[in-house]
Q: What sequence folds into this?
């Protein structure tokens, strides 16, 4: 019918994709077939299937998964409660505001807060729990990562909740559903698009976290991002780095297809 | 729709307003003029007053850009598209850049102040006739430790780190050569060993150190040790000097089995536009008074012999950072081991990091 | 009923406390005469003075905001077009392909994006500096805008468009009077997330910049080896306070004006 005029949106977008996505992908693919001395090889791909890289892949996925789950668990109630406040747009913006402060500075602040003599331990002492090792643990790593990704999860869920017709909730309650059932059968399914968007906006970048693994986890957590960073910069083995990137992209593609729309 | 239009209008107006202000600030500083010198250096690695002094003296405008790692800097220069006149790579980066033809040879006739550099710091293996580089700052790799936290125990060697009492008390820098080198030194091998059997032996020994290692970190190690997060750290001497300035309970030692001697050097990349100006700048920094001023600001050890006369005695008398070289054992400069061997070092290091879980 | 409200507020309050603790930590130490972020020794404003004396740093801050604002605005426009494009594509396969391509830049580590953009720019011959940084920021912000706008499009009932068409609206009107107003929250979300991506970016900017052009992120990361001086804390505090004032101020002004025009609650 009017397909031609609708495709006009495709033009600038596809142009962007070709220039800034396809070209880099081709570059990455190209480099992945060269070894460190510039010779054509598929040894990089073989190396990826060794225990050390497979372990890293699993580790990356596991932590990305954890971070996404916790972000969702914390962000959903936050978004929900925000929709109930009086100046909701304002509070929403105030939640986003901290993300504009430089990441390195915030992490340095966390190094101080979670330190042995820092604020967190001072609070624990006051509560009678005593000083604990917080830094360089899985807990602090996931905590700080979730801290950083929270706005990305809150925003789309907030938008989805805002769209929700309150009379639907009322109707469910009227029909005798408990709060939990209402949530499970009415609210959550209707906001699933927002949840999916949030999960994608968190899980996908979390796969290649690098900075935080070093700063907060003290390299106790090794992700594919760590390996890529080393190969690209330190070893100058762009070939291996590119190979890992290829697998990251494939993994992401699988995630997209699996969580795709079934409508 | 109205809100959208409002937002975008506000954004564009603000952006252009800021651009205007930035443009004027740039003009006021003289950045958009000609006769400029572009310097590519580590962050906060030069006294800003020296830059102003240089500008006043020569009338040139200095454009200053910073990087946070040798590798990133090399990648930028190699790729092209930049016009850096002076860069400050570490010694192993100098030999890599030499190999890849990224450097312009220095005209020593334009660097009369070169004579003030301590001859021990010239003609080193990474640049035998100082054809391409001039030392800027130097230091060692060693162990910083908190005297109080260790209950008065002293550390003097790499092997001391394996002490069972140091469980979970050590922070390591995130550097493959530093850590593997530490393993090699503790076995009395050279830092530049390329024998794979030796390297694997070193890695196995490092694996046994794992229970003592709290974390492997980057620049934040300074903050962490000064905050007493850990009692011991394997660090560069420059970092140690800064930490000690913050926390007097700390002490620094170069282990007796031997260690790494590092240098940061001034070079002229091949993308330089103002080679004449670059030489002037390098000569300016070699001036003893300027070198001394820089050393005081940055806090690292200067290779400039004459500059020591202008530094306060408490700095130059500090044997930890201005050691008497006869008393220190085997200090080695990192050799360029070639891409394959370096890749092997990094693979071992990556394995070591993963072993720790 | 009252009990429930208390719990709700408590949760939000805790959230805000946790979110802002690191920020206040930074602000607190920006006044520290001790020079480091532990051991508060005494109150001083010297770091703030240092900020205003460092012209190079001020120029860098301006650069950062110019890039962030322009890149976010342009990438939002591009991203909305992208979301619309994906929305209108009917075939599942094509949709998934576009989405996958869209997300490539989000999943790729910054190093790779930086390196490949650098190669791209040097091949095309674009001079490194303001232009290359701006193009790069636009490029990597588009995907997140698409991700934020797409769900709103999917929530939109297609009957809305049909109704508008029935009433005689042309293509442009459907877009500006029906679609865009509906997805506005998504557009705002995309814009703010693009701002975040741009302000925080280090690796990509580092690789594609040149000619003395630098952003705050690059400067901060470069100083990490030497130790980040508290003047950066002071600068961040100033920027933070300024943004807070801007946000709060804008909000209350727009509240007042909407009340003046009698635009009551939409829902």
A:
């Amino acid at each position: 019918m009017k397909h031609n005029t609708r495709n006009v949106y495709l033009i600038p977008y596809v142009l962007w994709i070709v220039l800034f996505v396809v070209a880099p992908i081709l570059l990455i693919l190209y480099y992945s077939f060269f070894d460190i001395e510039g010779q054509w090889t598929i040894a990089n791909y073989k190396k990826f299937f060794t225990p050390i890289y497979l372990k890293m892949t699993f580790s990356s996925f596991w932590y990305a998964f954890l971070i996404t789950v916790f972000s969702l668990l914390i962000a959903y109630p936050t978004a929900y409660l925000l929709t109930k406040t009086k100046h909701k747009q304002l509070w929403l913006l105030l939640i986003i505001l901290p993300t504009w402060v430089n990441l390195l500075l915030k992490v340095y602040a966390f190094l101080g807060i979670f330190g042995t003599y820092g604020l967190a331990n001072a609070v624990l002492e006051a509560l009678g729990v005593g000083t604990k090792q917080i830094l360089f643990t899985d807990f602090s790593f996931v905590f700080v990562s979730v801290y950083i990704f929270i706005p990305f999860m809150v925003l789309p869920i907030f938008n989805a909740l805002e769209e929700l017709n309150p009379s639907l909730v009322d109707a469910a309650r009227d029909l005798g559903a408990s709060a939990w059932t209402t949530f499970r059968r009415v609210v959550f399914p209707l906001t699933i698009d927002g949840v999916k968007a949030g999960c994608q906006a968190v899980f996908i970048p979390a796969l290649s976290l690098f900075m935080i693994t070093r700063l907060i986890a003290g390299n106790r957590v090794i992700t594919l991002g760590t390996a890529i960073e080393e190969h690209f910069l330190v070893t100058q083995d762009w070939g291996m780095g590119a190979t890992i990137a290829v697998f990251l992209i494939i993994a992401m593609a699988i995630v997209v297809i699996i969580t795709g729309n079934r409508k | 729709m109205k809100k959208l239009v409002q937002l975008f209008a506000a954004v564009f107006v603000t952006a252009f307003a800021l651009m205007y202000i930035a443009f004027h600030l740039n003009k006021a500083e003289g950045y958009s003029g000609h006769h400029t010198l572009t310097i590519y250096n580590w962050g906060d690695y030069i006294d800003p007053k020296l830059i102003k002094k240089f500008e006043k003296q020569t009338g040139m405008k200095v454009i200053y850009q910073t990087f946070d790692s040798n590798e990133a800097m090399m990648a930028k220069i190699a790729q092209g598209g930049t016009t850096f006149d002076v860069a400050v790579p570490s010694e192993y980066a100098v030999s890599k850049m030499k190999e890849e033809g990224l450097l312009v040879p220095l005209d020593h006739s334009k660097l009369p102040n070169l004579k003030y550099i301590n001859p021990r710091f010239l003609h080193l293996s990474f640049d035998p006739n100082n054809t391409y580089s001039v030392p800027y700052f130097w230091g060692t790799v060693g162990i910083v430790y908190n005297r109080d936290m260790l209950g008065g125990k002293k550390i003097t060697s790499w092997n001391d780190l394996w002490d069972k009492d140091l469980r979970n008390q050590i922070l390591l820098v995130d550097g493959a050569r530093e850590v593997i080198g530490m393993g090699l030194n503790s076995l009395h091998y050279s830092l530049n060993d390329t024998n794979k059997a030796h390297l694997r032996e070193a890695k196995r020994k490092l694996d046994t150190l794992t229970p003592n290692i709290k974390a492997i970190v980057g620049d934040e190690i300074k903050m962490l040790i000064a905050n007493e997060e850990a009692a011991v750290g394997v660090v560069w001497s420059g970092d140690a000097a800064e930490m000690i300035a913050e926390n007097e309970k700390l002490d620094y030692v170069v282990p007796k089995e031997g260690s790494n001697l590092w240098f940061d050097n001034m070079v002229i990349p091949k993308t330089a536009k103002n080679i004449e100006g670059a030489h002037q700048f390098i000569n300016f920094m070699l001036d003893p008074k300027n070198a001394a001023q820089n050393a005081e600001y940055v806090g690292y050890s200067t290779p400039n012999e004459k500059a020591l006369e202008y530094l306060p005695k408490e700095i130059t008398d500090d044997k930890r950072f201005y050691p008497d070289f006869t008393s220190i054992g085997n200090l080695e400069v990192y050799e360029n081991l070639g891409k394959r061997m370096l890749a092997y070092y990094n693979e071992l290091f990556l394995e070591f990091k993963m072993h720790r879980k | 009923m009252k009990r429930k409200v208390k719990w709700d507020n408590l949760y939000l309050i805790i959230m805000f406390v946790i979110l802002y603790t690191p920020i206040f930590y930074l602000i607190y130490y920006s006044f520290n005469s001790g020079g480091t972020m532990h051991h508060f020794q005494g109150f001083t404003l010297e770091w703030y003075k240092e900020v205003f004396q460092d012209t190079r740093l001020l120029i860098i801050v301006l650069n950062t905001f110019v890039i962030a604002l322009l890149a976010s605005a342009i990438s939002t426009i591009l991203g909305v077009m992208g979301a619309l494009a994906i929305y209108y594509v009917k075939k599942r396969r094509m949709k998934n392909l576009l989405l996958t391509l869209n997300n490539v830049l989000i999943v790729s580590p910054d190093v790779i994006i930086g390196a490949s953009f650098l190669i791209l720019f040097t091949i095309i011959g674009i001079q490194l500096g303001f232009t290359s940084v701006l193009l790069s920021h636009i490029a990597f912000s588009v995907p997140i805008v698409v991700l934020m706008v797409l769900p709103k499009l999917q929530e939109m009932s297609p009957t809305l468009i049909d109704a508008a068409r029935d009433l005689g609206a042309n293509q442009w009107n459907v877009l500006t009077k029906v679609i865009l107003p509906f997805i506005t929250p998504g557009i705002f979300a995309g814009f703010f997330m693009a701002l975040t991506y741009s302000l925080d970016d280090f690796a990509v900017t580092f690789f594609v910049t040149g000619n003395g052009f630098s952003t705050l992120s690059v400067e901060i990361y470069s100083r990490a080896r030497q130790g980040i001086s508290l003047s950066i804390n002071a600068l961040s505090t100033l920027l933070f306070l300024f943004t807070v004032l801007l946000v709060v101020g804008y909000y209350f002004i727009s509240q007042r004006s909407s009340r003046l025009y009698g635009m009551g609650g939409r829902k």
